[in-house]
Amino acid sequence: MVLAWLMVAGSARAAGETAPATSSGNATRVAQVAPSGPPAAPAAPEELVPRVLPTERVFYGWEILATGEVGGALVAASVWLPSSEVGTPASTFAFLIGMPTYAVAGPLVHWGHGHWVKGLASLGLNVAGATIGGIVGSAVQCNRQGAPGDCSLKGVFNGLAVAGLTVPLIDAGVLGWEDVQVSDPVAARTGSTRVALAPLMSVGPRSLSLGVGGRF
Question: What would the pLDDT profile of 68-82 be if each residue is shown by its tens digit?
Answer without folding.
Answer: 999 999 999 999 999
